[in-house]
Amino acid sequence: MTAGARNYAIVTASYWGFTLTDGALRMLVLLYFFQLGYSPFTLAFLFLLYEAAGIGANMIGGWLATRFGITRMLMTGLATQIAGFLVLSAVSPDWAAALSVAWVVVAQGVCGVAKDLTKTASKSAIKVAEAQARKDAGESRLFRWVAFFTGSKNAMKGFGFFLGGVLLQTLGFSQALWVMAGALALVLASVFLALPRDMGKAKASKSAKELFAKSRGVNLLAAARVALFGARDVWFVVGVPVFLYANGWTFTMVGGFLAAWTIGYGAVQAAAPAFVKRSPDGLSAEVLGARAWSFALAAVPALIAAAIAADVGRPDLVLVAGLGIFGFAFAVNSSVHSYLILAYAGSEKAAEDVGFYYAANAAGRFTGTLLSGLLYQAGGILACLLGSAVMLAICFAVTLALPRGPGRQEVT
What is the pLDDT of residue 349? Predict the structure, then answer.
């Protein structure tokens, strides 16, 4: 195994551990506070700082990873998540509602910073590790590595959803968070011992203007990412779990379904290279693939909404079936986007480009999370689905402008 392949394997395994606990955290918070009687909008509000913090964390994290090295940023993200878990575990059902909400929002903000520091460092590490492996072995594997990393980490997030439901039902809220903090401490120790300290370290941007001066491809892809992930979270964050629970599903059933959906979604992401035609320049066919899959995806939530409105059967089962179709198309879209950002990114400051892109990703999640609570409270799951369809139409429109010619990208 080459040094690049070894580093890729270590980073991937470390992010698996992080993602497992992050998925569990979402189910713990959502189901625990819904059980306490919090409204859909309040539930969405609990996640807002978590998502908003990611916008700044990605931008700063990309710069810091370039300045101080990817390994240090990965370790910082893991340590920050542990701190967030411990703060969150102190919340008590005996507290006043205002204090509980404020405490959880702040703790979630800490975890949001942790997630995006860790994600930016990990995704940037793929670019660095793949370049090293290509130099050693003479074979390009960027799309395959990105697809496997993205798909496998989402499968682990699915296991995390299920784990969160099980831990809440068996251990309770605080004890579950303590167990997860201990598990992440072991991951942190492994990263400290296994990865080189200067991995990905380069000359960072010296000004905000230089930091934000991205290529046209990076800028457009970031805009498409805002719409894509907003379209997912506008019904997935609050609408789907609350709708299923309101239709008689138990905590474990909700967590189990979201786990199965996310695992399947991750498996499709990992296999995405089989569904997208490859091109010698690494861009032309891949951009066409992004356009085609975005167009197909935009119709799915509108059709699900129409089926539920027409009362064709049990609405919960209609939603579940529709989610299966949506998940397949969304997984391919997301995987192609994850490849394209590394294809467009400059090699020397890949972490900064990736950080900018995932700041847009966080902005999309923030928008979707906010609208998920607002739309569900205003018009139920139908309003959430229609909001998703509008966002996906915007995503498709932006992908039409993505550059297909050679530029700041690696040929794969």
Answer: 59
Distance CA 261, CA 257 (A): 6
Comparing C-alpha atoms, which of 353, 394, 105 is closest to residue 230?
394
Query: CA 364, CA 344: separation in Å to the nearest integer?
Result: 20
Instruction: Kindly give the interhelix angle for 251-270 and 315-344, rounded to the nearest 10 degrees.
Output: 40
Q: What is the DSSP letter of 273?
A: G
CA distances from 410 to 140, 145, 275, 339, 401 (A): 10, 14, 21, 11, 20
Who contacts 370 (Cβ-Cβ below 8 Å, separation ≥6)? Answer: 44, 48
What is the structure's pLDDT at 186? Answer: 92
Measure the CA–CA gap between 117 and 59, rounded to whole angstroms.
9
Taking only Cα atoms into account, the Rg of the chain, rounded to an integer number of angstroms, comes to 20
Helix axes 315-344, 284-309, angle to 10 degrees: 160
Predicted TM-score of the model (pTM): 0.69
- Number of alpha carbons in the 13 Å side-chain half-sphere of residue 169: 14
C-beta of residue 164 within 8 angstroms of C-beta of residue 69: no
Looking at the predicted structure, is the pLDDT value of residue 181 above 90? Answer: yes
